[in-house]
Amino acid sequence: MSYKDANIRVIPDEQGEGRYATIQWITGEQKMKKAGGVPYTGGLFIKAERCPDDFELPPGFTSGEISFDNGASELGYMGQSAEIVLIRYRRRWALKNGATQYLPWNQYKDGAKSQVQALVAVRGCNIPLTMAFNGKSKGESFKAFIAAVDALLARANEDNVGLRYPRLMFWIPVTSTAALDPVKGFAQAVGKGGQSSLVTPMVIHPALGDLKAVTDHMLEKQYVGEAQLERNQTWYEEAEEWAHSWDRGQALANREAEEQGEDDLF
Q: How many domains does the chain have?
């Protein structure tokens, strides 16, 4: 079935409550070269904590444990690359002055930092997942992701005289810079206090094709298909409360932090 015959019932919006399982981007470390895989090149990590018993792994993902700089570790599933659909996303500001104050997106205060959380579908996975894009490096990756899917949509909507196609129609392949080039894929990033570190940002996989010259063939190749489109639209509709809950500010944010744990929000 072509994307041109898709049964669209959701209207695209700019944002994209439930207790979703989470997927996060893990930056690689050169010292993990011997171990290889995601700990070395970076990649995607799905926390096992909230995955249901019938959870289906995306292609190329394996079970394992990830250790973090603070000494904590998590069990889950990891892969260097995946194809992802953006279903919805939400944004807010976090202002740290002792305790963290959370502000709706339209109530910015000096010194606040943006927080973005997306609801995504991952090809081969049978549940929606939330993914945070906070910090400079992940923020740039999110902008690149949006630009990629919007490039596809611009071409798809050129000849579309009906309802405009939404972002949840097309898979976007992502991978690590180090997975593409282990020699040059580690980039220098400057963090808090001017300290620098090597990171492996999430980028659009070149297999997607030239986004400056999107073709019908690219659109057909990346179209999610009728069954996945139905799932994506259902997940979109079910996430209505989730998508707008951050608009209510501090009280809701505090409740979520207590119920879900701070790391699951960001």
A: 1
